[in-house]
């Protein structure tokens, strides 16, 4: 699966069709620009569905030191304020 991560580590884009990605973009070569045709400022992060079973709640996660970490409500409130 392909995730688009902003500078703060927030997941802003998700593409979950792993079969399509493997066929069209072998070896994790897909770019966000293959899907969004405007300047997005996101970086690519690849992870398998089996390694990210809670992907339906991707907005609750942040990339920290190369790991997807579930943020708590307290952390989200702190980041906003």
In words, what does this structure look like?
There is one protein chain. The chain is α+β, with helices and mostly antiparallel strands and 81 residues long. The chain has one domain (2-80). It is built from two helices and five strands; from the N terminus they run ββαβββα. It has helices spanning 18-24, 73-80, and strands spanning 2-5, 11-15, 43-46, 61-64, 67-70. The strands form two sheets. It has a three-stranded antiparallel sheet, with no helix packed on it. Strands 4-5 form a two-stranded antiparallel sheet. β4 (61-64) and β5 (67-70) form a beta hairpin. The longest helix is centred in the last third of the chain and has 8 residues, at 73-80. It is globular. The protein starts with a strand and ends with a helix.
């Amino acid at each position: 699966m392909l995730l688009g991560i902003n500078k703060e580590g927030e997941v802003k884009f998700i593409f979950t069709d792993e079969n399509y990605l493997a066929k069209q973009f072998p070896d994790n070569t897909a770019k966000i620009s293959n899907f969004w045709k405007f300047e997005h400022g996101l970086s690519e992060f690849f992870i398998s569905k089996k390694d990210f079973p809670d992907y339906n709640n991707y907005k609750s996660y942040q990339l920290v030191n190369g790991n997807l970490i579930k943020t708590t409500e307290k952390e989200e409130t702190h980041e906003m304020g």
